[in-house]
Amino acid sequence: MSVGSKEHRNDNNWRRLVIKVGTSTIVDGKGEIKYPVINRLSQTLTQLQKSGYEVILVTSGAIGVALQQMKISQRPADIPEQQALAAIGQSYLMAIYNQSFAFYQQHVGQVLLTYDVFDNKLMLQYTIDAVDVMLAQRVIPIINENDVIAVDELDHQHSFGDNDRLAAIVTHETQADSMIVLSDIDALYTANPFVDPTAQPISLVSSITQELLDSATGSSTLGTGGMLTKLKAAEYLMQQQRQMVLINGANPATILDVVQGKQVGTLFKGE
Known about the structure:
Elements: E1 16-21, H1 23-26, H2 35-50, E2 54-59, H3 62-69, H4 79-103, E3 108-113, H5 115-119, H6 121-136, E4 140-145, H7 151-154, H8 164-173, E5 178-183, E6 188-189, E7 201-202, E8 204-205, H9 210-215, H10 227-239, E9 243-248, H11 254-259, E10 266-268
Parallel strand pairs: 1-2, 1-5, 2-4, 3-4, 5-9, 8-10
Antiparallel strand pairs: 6-7, 9-10
Helix pairs in contact: 2-4, 3-4, 8-10
């Protein structure tokens, strides 16, 4: 694991990318939807698509968006209430994405997944085929977990981890070259930078150690993920000979720096 200022470059020939957006990237701590961030994300992904990249967006945020729309201040603990909010929020979330991408004349398509899709080879193949067709037609698939029926995920018993693991599995199964994770932090740090002023950013991680996993704690206010789920997603991808980059989602245009091989955030790449 390389820490601090040591330079890395993702010298790559990436063509198929999975971009993962967490709830905290598109909904702020007060529950307000970050429309400018979503707009910049749409603009950036459209630019990538028009530059010849195949782009898949994995997004969280359905329940976070629903809380704002329904004027509810706190995520309920009751599972049926969360399911209802997921149904309400998903329609709003896709409406926001559709409107934002349409401004840049970019078509998108919704794909809702649950764990059983990955356990059934036939269902999985049909899903991958549908994604491939969308990409061939220059459409950006927008993938989310189907939280209306994925009760285990809502109860955190069998969780994709705010879609971090879902995005990692999608990256592998669609044979994407890399996954770029947009988070509410600039990079992986040696400690929690919000409480420890001596924390230093880690530019390159070549292996996921138990010490690293033990040090990862916390999650966003409205989402279910945290640094631990991101590290586990990175570990999974590295085992599949793929890469992951963690960057701050406040300015999604930073994605362009990543694909150009610039040192941004934390690169997870096996030796």
